[in-house]
Specification:
Layout (H helix, E strand, L loop, with lengths): L4 E5 L1 H12 L18 E7 L2 E10 L10 E9 L8 H15 L4 E7 L3 H6 L3 E9 L3 E9 L2
Parallel strand pairs: 4-5
Antiparallel strand pairs: 1-2, 2-3, 3-4, 5-7, 6-7
Length: about 150
């Protein structure tokens, strides 16, 4: 059962949740040049009309497989009041359908350690040692093969 309507949205529509959930309210830290890359796209999850989840996707080689068509997932955020209801899964399910249609071979991200259980339940593999990444929190490289 779907709790949210998933649709493509403009990068600017992601900024509020990016700032609130991922950057401790710092709205300047969520506007990145990558949003203007050709081929970049963004998904939003709406529940009762409110935007409650976002995710952004950028055509970028995976650090461990530069010869495979890949997309980087960034800025995955779900409103804390809506977590645990399947919204993150809905966002990624929609993205995976689109990426497979485009013949993308790998979806990858620098996943926060606090979210690794979520990603591994969806089939991502955690690779290598952890590292600190923006905003100074522990992350790991995560990879999902799409073929």
């Amino acid at each position: 059962m779907s709790i949210a309507e998933i649709q493509r949205i403009a990068a600017a529509d992601t900024y509020y949740l990016r700032a609130r959930v991922l950057r401790d309210g710092d709205s300047a830290a969520v506007r990145v040049p990558d949003d203007d890359l050709p081929g970049a796209w963004h998904l939003g999850a709406r529940h009762s009309g409110a935007l409650v989840g976002v995710a952004s996707f950028y055509p970028r080689s995976c650090p461990l497989a530069t010869d495979v068509a890949a997309t980087q997932l960034r800025f995955m955020a779900v409103d804390p009041a809506m977590r645990g209801r399947g919204i993150g899964r809905q966002l990624l399910d929609r993205a995976l359908r689109e990426l497979r249609k485009e013949k993308t071979g790998i979806l990858w991200a620098n996943g926060r350690d606090t979210a690794l259980d979520f990603y591994t339940r969806l089939g991502f593999t955690v690779v290598g040692d952890g590292f600190n990444h923006e905003p100074g929190l522990p992350h790991h490289l995560i990879i999902l093969g799409l073929s």
